[in-house]
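To assess whether ligand presence alters the predicted conformation, the chain was also submitted together with PXG. Input:
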Amino acid sequence: MPSNTAARHNRTRQLQQRDAAHHLHPFTDFQDYAAHPGRIISRAEGVYIEDSDGNRILDGMSGLWCCNLGYSQPRIVEAVRQQLATLPFYNNFFQCANEPAVNLAARLVDMTPANFNRVFFTNSGSEANDTNLRLVRRYWDLLEQPQKRIVLSRANAYHGSTIAAASLGGFDFVHRQFETLPYVHHIAQPYWFKEGGELSPADFGLRAARDLERTIDELGEDNIAAFIAEPIQGAGGVIVPPESYWPEVHRILSERDILFISDEVIFGFGRSGELFGWQSYGTAPDLITFAKAVTNGFQPLGGVLLGDRVADVLTAAGGEFGHGFTYSGHPAACAAALATLDILEREQLVDRVADDIGPYLQRRWRELAGHPIVGETRGRGMVAALELVRDKQTRQRLEDGGKAGAVCRQFCLDSGLVMRAVGDAMIIAPPLVCSHGELDLLIERAGRALDLTAHHYGI
Ligand code: PXG
């Protein structure tokens, strides 16, 4: 082993030991992590990450669904640098504002459909969803309908990790670890492959949508404040709903006086081929949650875009809105967002997803459906998923307990690809700037990982 390589390995081992000894990681089994130390990511370039041992890995997950423009964006870096040199921080409380926050608010409003004219900034998607609950509650109080308190969400949703956002989320194992908010109720999710049984996708989509109607009727429209949903569930496994689902939800909501929150933390800023995912499905949200790709993941920033229906009530009323964060509208984060949106627009990346790279990914991804252990492929724009099975007809899994996903994920990494496993669903959300050649490589490496997984299970 050459000595610089040996030195690098030593350094990696040192970091791994320190990491295991002192650093508690999100959504991680602490006991398991101590026994199986993580990979230290040291650098990134284009659509590749590089670990401390020098392995270059194609990042099929855009960081964590956020580096939509890839890792090499010097204009964003320069915008942040300049902002830190000019005004590294000032708050937006007590009759103050800073220039990047003002400009970003106006910019977001300009980009969004005409009935969205106000923004509230946070540092993350979780805080943005907490903010949504505060906005919704205040809205109904100001309209003197204080009995409208229940918020509906869906099983297997992900809306973040604060107490409020995790209550909105629909992961049972998470709910068992804390006391959830009593006024959040969950309805069915539109996950046809897992729960559709003998129903056609179209019939199952209608059934899942009508669980919303049934629940509203059961709990009483007068008691329900809002419904929150992701256009396509992301962390839940890229659950692309059957085409029948959203039109039916839209009908149900439009016949009732209930606010609709579209959680666009993953789909906002182009991933579906529209600026927001709800635009791909023709729904009409009153509130939009955003985060992640708004800064290309380079700075923490999230927020809520308020439709006029809510904003007009809140801004017409007197009385302080008792909510906000030290870093709401942080100048460096807002500067990063402004630079990100410049690139998104200048390079017409939303159109590129709709017309070129999105269709290309979907076409190539569907080729994997022919693989012996793939039960379904699905996707839209720049997200896609496949289901690992032993038997395509019966949808029998390779192994009980959703463990095959983790096996396949390891083979992906060994093949130089970051692909995420959600149980036995393998999911990708590559950068919107990927070339055709980079997507070809992604498909080739995913195919290799599938071959190795099949071999592992004796198929
Ligand atoms: N809403 C949605 C739809 C999300 O996907 C959040 C809210 C929370 O955002 P913050 O910025 O507070 O993390 C998210 C975050 C995964 C994974 O494993 C997904 C997210 C976060 C961490 C892991 O796919 N999404």
